Amino acid sequence: ETTMAFKELDTQSWQVLDRAHYLHPSTDHASLRQTGARVAAHAEGIYVWDTDGERLIDGLSGLGNVNIGYGRKELVDAAAAQMLELSYCQSFFKTTHRAAISLAEKLTSMLPGHLNHVFFQSSGSEANETGTRLARRYWDLLGKPEKRIFIARELAYHGSSHMAASLSGIWPMHKAGGDLPLSNVTHIKTAYQYRNGFGMDADAFGVLAASWLEDKILEIGADNIAAFVAEPAQSAGGAICPPMTYWPEIQRICKKYDILLIVDEVVMGFGRTGEWFGCYKYGIEPDIMQVGKAITSGYLPLSGTIISDRVADVLIDQGGAWDHGYTYSGHPACCAVALENIRILDEEGIVENAGKELAPYFQAKLDAFADHPLIGDIRYVGLMGGLEIVKDKASREAYAYEAHIGDFCSAEALKRGLALRANGDTMSLMPPLITTKAQMDEIFDITREALDATAKHYGVTA
Ligand code: PLP
What we know:
Elements: H1 11-21, H2 29-35, E1 40-44, E2 47-50, E3 55-58, H3 61-64, H4 73-85, H5 98-110, E4 115-121, H6 124-141, E5 149-153, H7 162-167, H8 172-175, E6 185-188, H9 193-196, H10 202-220, E7 225-230, H11 246-257, E8 260-264, H12 278-282, E9 288-291, E10 303-308, H13 309-319, H14 332-347, H15 350-367, E11 375-381, E12 384-389, H16 405-415, E13 418-419, E14 421-423, E15 426-429, H17 437-457
Parallel strand pairs: 3-13, 5-6, 5-7, 7-8, 8-9
Antiparallel strand pairs: 1-2, 2-3, 4-10, 9-10, 11-12, 12-15, 14-15
This protein binds pyridoxal-5'-phosphate.
Enzyme class: transferase
Pfam families: Aminotran_3
GO molecular function, one term: transaminase activity
């Protein structure tokens, strides 16, 4: 039963209207026209029900954001109370409000001591726009406008606006519109050991992968580089998790060449790695950090760009007005929901439990796929995991793109009531942080069934 004033239609009619009028994000609409979309109706905990009453386990936490699970009334109440009290407040000029101030203070208290200033916007893409504009502004104010190039990584995902898509290293995104990447973005190989350092000692590979940043800096000259931009671990690229030696080396190289370090925690922030932030998991001290997604567990849109004293001091003391801002920067209801979300994640020990109890269980379940005939590589950090499908385990040969084996496998999982995602041919899982061990068992039982059905369809035997 719905409390909203929707038309009373059956599922098929919704699908017809959906195809006619609603352009979905990142979707093959030709294929959608043939299959029709699943129409979600309501959700609770880790489950989503569609308009036919069928239940789906959300093994992806929405898009890596619904960390607290669906249907927490406290978050709804926080939004409603804030909307009744102060539904909107712009803070472009000299107005502010308590929800944004409280959230900015809360975030900075949770982060390393040098990160003391927060800029808000609605999405991760916008957070990356802010971070990169800010880096350029910083160097301009210091009289070094030629420091304008951003180094990012292959298989990175930073969003869909022009700069965020440019920073992304998933190449089809560059063709999706505009002459991308923008001319001041370049990419290096990433810490993807299965493809870029197979068979090496993991620690040695971490150091090697970091050295690719130094190679690039030497190639284009540190005087031309604004920043290195990276996710602590890459999610949309296919659960690419660096060895522990990688980030300390990256940090050292950025310091050595005086290059800002911008860390995109849009997915990793708020517990995905089993720590509150990826920077704690990997020991990173960013100059600028982006957060979003799970900051509200997906109940409302909000992102933050968190700025170190080093950068903020220049911006504030030397900058004058900075003409950058969004209508919904620091939206009161979004900030109130974020505060309540963080309170619950903390007071109920959800992040702590995810790291200490759930992550080892999840990771052992992933490791159990080592003997599966389709799985060539298994990667994880915290509650993000990936199972990479290959055609030949010995040679690591991938299936041809046209085989669409990852998509086939995710469709098989969906048929059996589990949402997971094919990032290329890596089957990615990011369950909510409130998933129980029994629910985890169910997730992996379905994952195995889906992989077995895929193996059968593609004629693969053990
Ligand atoms: N950064 C990372 C690491 C992401 O994974 C994403 C989205 O998946 C983004 C940024 C973009 O965030 P949004 O979709 O909210 O613009």
